[in-house]
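User: Second chain of the day. Same drill as before.
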Amino acid sequence: MHIKELHLTNYRNYKKMSVSFENKVNVILGENAQGKTNLIESIFVLALAKSHRTPRDKELLSWDEDYARIEGAIERRNGPLQLDVIISVKGKKVKLNGLEQRKLSEFVGSLNVVMFAPEDLNIVKGAPQIRRRFLDMEIGQINPIYLHHLGKYQKVLQQRNHVLKDLQRQKQNTLMLDVLTEQLVETGAKVLERRFEYISMLQTWAENIHNQISRGKESLNLEYKPSIDVSEKTELSKIEQVFYEAFQKITEKEIMRGSTLVGPHRDDLIFTVNGKEVQVYGSQGQQRTTALSVKLAEIELIKEKIGEYPILLLDDVLSELDDYRQSHLLHAIQGKVQTFVTTTSVEGIDHETLKEAATFVVTQGDIKRVK
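Assistant: Same format as last time:
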């Protein structure tokens, strides 16, 4: 798949912009604060209907504007697609071939992207919520029903926390808490099951890629660490049972804290290299190799699941990688994946992939192709 055309209206510092891209590497050149990352972000939003930089959609609108629009002409194996994301002060609309989609889960997955930016190195060394967000976004692209279960889980979780806070303030009937607990268990177990499944698939690719990058010296392992005592081999009904029993044991503690203490919102993903946790004991080089391996594994996993490669977004990440990892990344995508690379300069990046790339220059929200 690839993006043929992108049109932006009132999106961040792009008042009106239209551009055609090549089905290969597209280098986006420009000084800082000119709009390179905004351009990459708009492609991400076109795919997932949300930004990787902010949870507040209103921040995507140009200053003093009440709406923004992203339009993309996409070419997929099965034919062309027209995607539209319209964000306004009243909310968000998504359209597929001109038809508004009632649910985001019916839209997400039409365009598949893998984002790799400097902050993605925090997938390894950052807080657990970064890894959970990474899982949610990637699973949602290849399994839209996951987004439905996750959205339902988050809604019930919010309601349950509200009830727990009420119970914390004053003693009252726990009937509503019991009802919400059952709903949380039902949806939470499905979220947990899908995460286990995804990590198992990602492990296969990431282990092999990491072994190649480390020249056979290191072995990478991914382990999903749930807040309840279950494993990837546990059946859904058993996950529900263990989940429910865990709540029964900690109800009083949850009321005291006014918060739900177990569930997918408390889980984590652990990376180990040669048996040692990379988050804790890994060198900076090992952490970067792990993050790179996981990103390249995502590309191959999406290809395996949907039958075609996703689009790769590299936002100022080449400057964060040494020559060896840079070369491995560019070699891995060469001729296979439509890629967008943002950088302030291509000097020092001596690779055939970039020599053959289409190059664009961004200046104050204006983009032009250059030879």
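The chain has a mean pLDDT of 92.

User: Great, on to the next one.
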